[in-house]
């Protein structure tokens, strides 16, 4: 390792900071930090006569806190991605999990079928509702949120939500939403969604904020037909600062953490790596942590596994 690289002690120090999440703390490590406070609510958007279920994970300590909006995938809920929101909250980030009616678990909990899921996935109005949910949340942040340090994270349809909010161009335009939203300073796309209907270079030309893209070598989509290799496109065809991680062996369900959907949707195998990358990325981008940025540039040593793929650009 060069003199400018992280020393072994430096890597351990950073991983120690990331280990604010119990799932990243070594066995026999220090006592767990105070647990975040959790609360549920329903935020009402009167302009749309729409209720948005939310789950807040509030760090211990004095706010305001850097804040991450969390968007679930198709058929998910505000309780999904708990490993990510919990890890972030324990590391000092306020996590606001949004539930999007029309593309949430109501699609299958009451006898819905695969056709209902597919219909929601391809319904333009359902997609736009997600973006308006995020816009409403940004306009109505709780007092614990620091409006100067905001990011967004999501899985699958939630990743599409992240990409659109950060400037991915939509066929037919953004319907007056004026995207990207400049309040969002960073984004995390788990199982990114490749653009449709536009050439890649044009579709991602609006990206400016740094983004972390995490996918798996077996991350095939079962509704939209996206193949695992295609999920690299939003990183590879864009020019904004970014990080790409392809976790060896991970499938589409590996990142969701939706226990109600079955065991494979809550398999924790890849949660440690995903949460650790997210925390390092947000420390680097939202907090200006130079050590975290160097950790990312050097390939997340001691966190990624030997056959994982890792690329960075301008981080």
Could you explain how this protein is built, in words?
There is one protein chain. With 315 residues, this protein is of the alpha/beta class. It has a single domain, classed as Rossmann fold. It is 28% helix and 23% strand. The protein is built from ten helices and nine strands. It has helices at residues 8-18, 82-90, 106-109, 114-121, 124-139, 157-165, 200-203, 233-236, 271-285, 290-297, and strands at 37-45, 50-58, 65-71, 94-98, 145-155, 184-190, 211-218, 242-251, 309-313. A nine-stranded mixed beta sheet has the order 1-2-4-3-5-6-7-8-9, with helices on both faces. The longest helix is centred in the middle third of the chain and has 16 residues, at 124-139. The two termini are 19 Å apart. The model is unreliable at 19-30 (pLDDT under 50). This is Acetylhydrolase. One of its GO terms (molecular function) is 1-alkyl-2-acetylglycerophosphocholine esterase activity. Keywords: Hydrolase, Lipid degradation, Lipid metabolism. InterPro entries: AB_hydrolase_fold. It comes from Roseomonas gilardii.
